[in-house]
DNA sequence: CACCGAACTTACGCAGCAGTAAGATGAGGG
DNA sequence: CCCTCATCTTACTGCTGCGTAAGTTCGGTG
């Protein structure tokens, strides 16, 4: 039960780029564990086995350090999502792949998803914008697929995508926090099925329908 | 364009309970606008037309003040949700009512929903627990309905409920932030339809199904 | 009308933490 | 072997903002 990252080798000098990578890793751990506000620059430096001014030789301030991480992981999520949707032409498979991508993102990379989904700095415009932009880009990727294969209006497709992304994000986060009760695979499949049942064949039913009542 | 709340009557003495209510209202405005961290006790006091120590005669500290508001609005949401689900026996109607309740909650009460859904204090256990508890209670209300009318297993029903609540929360928040593009009514209906198509008749299809591919 | 207690004020202590001089240290080239 | 420059350290400053000590005003009651 020692520190998970390298506080190892306290007192070794590192070339610039290597040190920078390590500082980012240390910062991620601390920001994820404590959130932005409770994270102290001293602790980040400590965890990297280095003193505070070194941190300031690599990043102009706490905010920029945080934004670098946020940017990196936001991009990673969108990219994962894009790959998932391009991985197949079958829309049923696309839904599965898309949810899998969300769950993978949440399950991976030292819980970095908390920076993107649970930032305690959303009141800062720069952060809010980045978060929302990421969310929207994911939704837009899905919206494009929906529009492409249906006659749903742009506006409706957009809102439906938002709802689906919200569903993915929420269930993935919940699943991770209550690990152990359900394997990732089962959780993904279940939620993907819910989503697929929701959107598939949307064209065929129109606004007035009652759709039975079996629940 | 004066201050929306009562900084009016600076210098009037108020009986204890009345002052308390007013302080809570002032605090809500500031916490909603700035978030917990950026909210200053001085500003809250100012907005109530009073000096800081008065605040401390009503609440032991910033945190307790915040928790009082969080508690109040969390309870309101769960209650709204409970009423919605009890308002009818028709499950299709229940879904509509449930989403409507979410949208109403988000649309109402000076954006108090931001305290419950977008708190920048989630890293504090007390706050995290309250938020998650609220979320779970909403899901549980829905889960109970699902289980009651289907043969879905408890675990599956629970995860499905989580997904649905996530969908509601996300779409309601998104809808509010991008007001104007769609009327509340339309947004509610659209998302409710997505949800209903997702869960209704779940029993009839089983795990292996392909369910067509019309998108 | 004098007194009392609740409601309120000004003015400060104090702690945590981002960011910054100014100086030490060590690896590599001449 | 010594000079240089990048890397790193110790030790500080300054600010912001919560919480409080001590003193003031005003409505009501005997």
TrEMBL record, chains A, B:
<dbReference type="InterPro" id="IPR001647">
    <property type="entry name" value="HTH_TetR"/>
</dbReference>
<dbReference type="InterPro" id="IPR036271">
    <property type="entry name" value="Tet_transcr_reg_TetR-rel_C_sf"/>
</dbReference>
<dbReference type="InterPro" id="IPR009057">
    <property type="entry name" value="Homeodomain-like_sf"/>
</dbReference>
<feature type="domain" description="HTH tetR-type">
    <location>
        <begin position="17"/>
        <end position="77"/>
    </location>
</feature>
<protein>
    <submittedName>
        <fullName>AcrR family transcriptional regulator</fullName>
    </submittedName>
</protein>
<dbReference type="InterPro" id="IPR050109">
    <property type="entry name" value="HTH-type_TetR-like_transc_reg"/>
</dbReference>
<dbReference type="Pfam" id="PF00440">
    <property type="entry name" value="TetR_N"/>
</dbReference>
<feature type="DNA-binding region" description="H-T-H motif">
    <location>
        <begin position="40"/>
        <end position="59"/>
    </location>
</feature>
<keyword id="KW-0238">DNA-binding</keyword>
